[in-house]
Design brief:
InterPro entries: GntR_C, TF_FadR/GntR_C, Tscrpt_reg_HTH_GntR, WH-like_DNA-bd_sf, WH_DNA-bd_sf. The protein has helices spanning 2-13, 26-33, 37-49, 79-100, 103-118, 122-139, 143-151, 153-167, 170-185, 189-211, 213-222, and strands at 53-56, 60-63, 73-74, 77-78. With 223 residues, the protein is mainly alpha-helical.
Length: 223
């Protein structure tokens, strides 16, 4: 899927498919790339997530832009909005959770971490991921924090699905989640803050890599 997506993305960005052009059908692409139609379908969803195409029922997939959106939108909130809010809310929340969590919160966080590590279905994993972050907010003991995360829950789920589909973030997220749970379980406020800071930094980095891969590569060469 990643190879098909990358090929189609480059073709659009090079102008081989102009804005307004219709992409070949799923059947035609499946034959061309010698992969199943389900693989093609996932690749086309990836193009839509990047803001490069739109799917019109009964008509096909059409190119809408020559490059991905600089600041993609998830459920009414931009990626930039989410990154800023999560930095200022979820990082201190992790610290409070380490100090105020109770046994029920710890049991649920451990359960969610284990389920995410074993889950193979992307949709189910995203739902667990949302619940994981809400549980941490609830463990902070401040209902306002929990309310904020609940408000952006749908946007977070959409962003998580985007990152998993286009950035392969799931395995790394599982490792980062486990570190957060360990710190909260141990009552280590600074470690919990550090673990959440690292997690959100990796989320932001993955978003940048997906949307502006050339810029990311240039930065790495400079470093």
């Amino acid at each position: 899927m990643e190879a098909v997506l990358a090929y189609l993305r480059r073709a659009i960005e090079r102008g081989e498919y102009a804005v307004g052009d219709k992409l070949p059908s799923e059947a035609a692409l499946s034959k061309e790339f010698e992969v199943s139609r389900s693989v093609i379908r996932e690749a086309l969803r990836g193009l839509q997530a990047l803001g490069l195409t739109v799917s019109r029922t009964g008509k096909g997939t059409f190119v809408t832009a020559t490059g991905p959106a600089e600041n993609p939108t998830f459920g009414g909130y931009s990626a930039r909005d989410l990154v800023e809010v999560r930095r200022h809310v979820e990082i201190p929340v992790a610290g409070y959770a380490a100090l105020r969590r109770d046994a029920d919160h710890l049991d649920l966080l451990e359960h969610l971490a284990e389920r995410m590590e074993l889950e193979t279905d992307n949709t189910a994993w995203v739902a667990l991921d949302s619940l994981f972050h809400i549980t941490i907010a609830q463990a902070s003991g401040n209902p306002v924090f929990a309310k904020v995360i609940e408000e952006i829950r749908d946007a977070l789920a959409r962003q998580s699905a985007f990152l998993n589909q286009l950035g392969g973030r799931r395995v790394e997220s599982n490792v980062e989640h486990r570190r957060i749970v360990t710190a909260i379980t141990e009552g280590a406020e600074e470690a919990a803050v550090a673990a959440m800071t690292t997690h959100l930094a990796h989320v932001e980095q993955a978003l940048t890599t997906i949307v502006r891969p050339n810029r990311t590569a240039k930065q790495k060469r400079t470093d």
